[in-house]
Write a structure and sequence with these properties.
The chain is mainly alpha-helical. A hairpin with a 3-residue loop joins β1 and β2. It is elongated. It contains eleven helices and three strands. Strands 1-2-3 form a three-stranded antiparallel beta sheet, covered by helices on one side.
Length: 262
């Protein structure tokens, strides 16, 4: 009996530690709390446990118990500040379904999780180019001409590349948003400075759109609907701070280029 209890406790500890790490990476990649609950609950059920999760701004607190409510085990994992990755969210969600459908063991699941983390190496150049093209398209949607779209594409290329470099060096996200907005707005103001094109003001305004934390605002609303009020407020506050930082960077760039605020 003692051996069985010890084995159950060891299994529970290993499962709890893995699920806490899984949950922390999922939420850090930009998943909503409801997706986190469903995925972790699905995995825990397959491994023979029931899971209760508390999502805090800086960490995940997870408790596991067997179907009878015995052998309660807790684990915690820190939530890193990482870029939003739909690739990671999709693949980790798919992993939870694979475990449920194919009845994978904990060891196999760990290996697949590790493979997903190690393979998350999106091509930096391709990502930068796509962001530049999409931001230029936004400029076009707002009425910008081809010249303005070209200026926005160049400003976005420079700003997003700087964002990638600073993020990889673990620079504070607020500083990153400010500096990238300064660089992009300085380049975006070239149309006004040299009187290029017919819509230079649109180019300037659209040059920093790639920094707007739209996903964080949407996730905050989703978390609020599902009554994760604390994390919803945290996400909203983070998004608001980023918005303020990029606004300050935009104003700084405009001041440096003497384009005028109004």
């Amino acid at each position: 009996m003692t051996t069985d209890t010890t084995h159950c406790r060891d299994t529970g500890n290993s499962t709890a530690a893995f699920l806490a790490s899984y949950a922390a990476r999922l939420i850090a990649s930009g998943a909503t709390c409801i997706r986190l609950e469903k995925n972790v609950g699905r995995l825990a059920k397959e491994f023979g446990f029931q899971a209760d999760i508390s999502v805090m701004p800086r960490h995940i607190h997870l408790s596991l118990s067997d179907p009878d409510g015995n052998h309660i085990i807790t684990a915690m994992a820190a939530v890193e500040t990482l870029p939003v990755s739909f690739n990671i969210i999709t693949r980790l969600s798919r992993l939870s379904w694979e475990v449920s459908d194919r009845h994978l063991t904990l060891d196999d699941t760990r290996l697949r999780f590790k493979a997903i983390m190690e393979s998350d190496r999106a091509h930096a150049l391709a990502t930068t180019l796509l962001v530049a093209v999409s931001n230029a398209a936004f400029c076009g949607l707002f009425g910008g001409d081809l010249t303005a779209m070209a200026i926005v594409a160049i400003a976005t290329l420079a700003g997003f590349r700087l964002k990638t470099l600073l993020t990889s060096k673990k620079v504070d996200f607020r500083v990153v948003a400010f500096l990238c907005a300064v660089v992009s707005s300085v380049l975006g103001a070239t149309g006004l400075l040299f009187q290029i094109g017919t819509t230079p003001h649109i180019a300037l305004g659209a040059s920093v759109l790639y920094l707007v934390p739209g996903i964080a605002f949407l996730n905050s609303f989703s978390d609020m609907i599902y009554r994760h009020y604390l994390f919803s407020l945290y996400r909203f506050a983070d998004a608001a701070v980023i918005t303020c930082c990029l606004s300050a960077g935009l104003c700084t760039g405009m001041a440096l280029m003497h384009t005028g605020m109004f």
